[in-house]
Amino acid sequence: MNAIRLSGTKKKIRDLLLYGIWKTGQFKEVVDILSRICGKTITYAPLSEEGACEALNKAGVAEDLIERWKKFYRIVRQDLCAAVTNDVELVIGTPPITFEQYAHDYSAAWM
Length: 111
Hints:
Layout: E1 2-7, E2 13-18, H1 27-38, H2 49-58, H3 63-77, H4 87-92, H5 99-105, H6 107-110
Antiparallel strand pairs: 1-2
Helix pairs in contact: 1-5
């Protein structure tokens, strides 16, 4: 979850909550979308928190960043980022695109 503060023209301030698609169980859906778009088989293999932290540590990621990562993904695993709001639409004036549309539009960047 990302929280931003937006100042309007009338000095009104509104806190906006911008959630991603990361609801528990949706990782497989994301992998299926990516597989379909790139035409290759991609499989999702969940990684334990301990295993992920070990891999980050071996990759040289700073301990404070690893701790922040752990806190964030604990929130994700509890589905605390699963709520859907219309805040993105309020900011940009149009509904947000789906992850599938995003992956398709930017596939050249990651294929």
